[in-house]
Known about the structure:
Blueprint: E1 11-22, E2 32-40, E3 44-49, E4 58-64, E5 70-82, E6 88-96, H1 99-115
Antiparallel strand pairs: 1-2, 1-4, 2-3, 3-6, 4-5, 5-6
Amino acid sequence: MGEERRxxxxxxxxxxxKLEELEIDEVVTVKYLNVEVTDLSRSGIGFKCKQDLEVGKxxxxxxxxxxxxxxxxxxxxxxxxxxxxxxxxxxCTFVGMNETDVLKIDIYQMFNENEGI
Length: 117
């Protein structure tokens, strides 16, 4: 397994997610992608998909967490690798999320850690 780069603990999360690409320049191109989330932390998400995305791209999304609540956030692709499974694997950081939603992730993480006691 590779070196852990996240500041926060990763928690498994298996949901499908629709990403809407955000263009920074004046040309607005809406591009929706469906991806499979593999894990989540308070600082970002990991997912896989068949599409080859550029590192540095921004996406707007609505993420359903374990409690079935929806978190609206903006993510930035910061890492990409090509797997042997035919998928590209991505690491993304949250660049836009309100504090209430960050707390929801923190609370679930605390609950999950206490379950192991």
